[in-house]
Design a protein that fits this description.
- By secondary structure, the protein is of the alpha/beta class.
- It folds into 3 domains: 126 residues, NadA-like (Rossmann fold); 129 residues, Rossmann fold, CATH 3.40.50; 80 residues, NadA-like (Rossmann fold), CATH 3.40.50.
- The chain starts with 7 loop residues before the first helix and ends with a helix.
- Bound molecules: iron/sulfur cluster.
- Iron/sulfur cluster (SF4) binds next to loops.
């Protein structure tokens, strides 16, 4: 199903995002396309545009690289001739690019209102309190035991703020992605008795379950409750402590949607992103990161039928790229990442024309010492 999502209403409300100068509002699609292409051509190799898989079509068609957040940050760092990295994604992605960039490069996010609701569910002060309260509940947070292992190792999904990554880096922890979560958790359990996995409880639960951790050895830490809403016995017995965060896009997929799909397409298969709930992942045939989903669907035989449980822009593009297969979004209304969607072609044009004129708008800079500590956590992952 191809859903039309850039409605006339949405075009009119473009100014409700990060405010733009009046001259960038109410431009026709043709004018936007022509001016973006012209500014991009003028900047040439001095500018690299990155587009996340969930980004809208009108923007991503100008991307030099398309991928997940880590792949894009690495791509940017490898394009050393580029002075400017324009990240068409959300805030935490631009922060990661700023941490991994070459010294002369500057990272720009076209709309500063493009955040991530999941990343916002873990604030640095909440993590500091959690760390302190875990110690009070009898978990060794920083000191090593007789076996040389820590009591708990913090693991943060790349979908988190630089401040969270910095805390994790400074406390012996590591970053993971949805592609490498299993190997990162193995690394962490070699170094600690327990894992504190944040901010996405579902990625943590799905990966832990896949690795054979019983559900009764997982607890959910609610940062809005005293002691995370847990008691000392619950925390002590847990192997995996899951931060109470989630993706508002991926948790919209449900088991009844899978049942409805199977009824309509008895031979069809379902592939779900691990940010979906455990019951959805268990009811699906396959589960994996965005790259895994794309590769799995592309590698399937002609005529295959797939329901895909991830953001609708990725699903729509996949549908267009593999016309020999039937691909539908699992949620018939299409799950849209509304914050990623805030990066409009108007914002991209404003950024690029600013760069042509020598003005950098919306530069994302991770300050010290956050940058150094966050890089520690990222580098531990990249070294694996
Ligand atoms: S899809 Fe979910 S996790 Fe990804 S950027 Fe959007 S809100 Fe954040």
């Amino acid at each position: 199903m191809d859903l039309k999502i850039l409605t006339d209403f949405e075009k009119q409300s473009i100014g409700e995002r990060q405010p733009l100068p009046e001259r960038y509002l109410r431009l026709s699609d043709d004018e936007l396309d022509a001016r973006i292409a012209s500014a991009k051509a003028t900047l040439g190799e001095r500018c690299v545009i990155l587009g996340h898989h969930y980004q809208r079509d009108e923007v991503i068609k100008f991307a030099d690289y398309i991928g997940d957040s880590l792949k894009l940050s690495r791509a940017a760092a490898s394009r050393t001739k580029a002075d400017y990295i324009v990240f068409c994604g959300v805030h935490f992605m631009a922060e990661s690019a700023d941490i991994l960039r070459a010294p002369h490069q500057k990272v720009v996010l076209p709309d500063l209102a493009a955040g991530c609701s999941m990343a916002d569910m873990a604030a640095p002060d909440q993590l500091e309190i959690c760390w302190r309260e875990m110690e009070q509940l009898g978990v060794r947070t920083d000191a090593l035991g007789a076996d040389g292992r820590a009591g708990v190792i913090p693991v943060t999904y790349i979908n988190s703020s630089a401040a969270i990554k910095a805390f994790v880096g400074a406390h012996g922890g590591i970053v993971c992605t949805s592609t490498n979560a299993q190997s990162i958790m193995t690394w962490a359990w070699e170094r600690g008795e327990k894992l504190l996995m944040l901010p996405d409880q579902h990625l943590g639960r799905n990966t832990g379950f896949k690795m054979g951790v019983p559900l009764d050895q997982m607890v959910v830490w609610d940062p809005n409750e005293m002691w995370g809403g847990l008691d000392a016995d619950q925390v002590k017995a847990a192997k995996l402590i899951l931060w109470k965060g989630h993706c508002s896009v991926h948790t919209r997929f449900t088991v009844p949607q899978i049942e409805a799909f199977r009824k309509k397409y008895p031979d069809g298969r379902v592939v779900a992103h691990p940010e979906c709930t455990l019951d959805v992942v268990r009811a699906a045939d396959e589960s994996g990161s965005t790259e895994y989903i794309i590769n799995t669907v592309k590698a399937s035989p002609a005529g295959a039928v797939w329901a895909v449980a991830t953001e609708v822009h990725l699903v729509n593009r996949l549908t267009a790229e593999v016309p020999d297969k039937t691909i539908v979004t699992l949620d018939p209304f299409g799950c849209l990442c509304s914050t990623m969607f805030r990066v409009s072609p108007n914002h991209l044009l404003w950024i690029l024309e600013g760069l042509v004129e020598g003005t950098i708008y919306n530069q994302i800079t991770v300050p010290e010492p956050t940058r150094t500590d966050a890089k520690l956590a990222l580098d531990r992952m990249l070294a694996l």
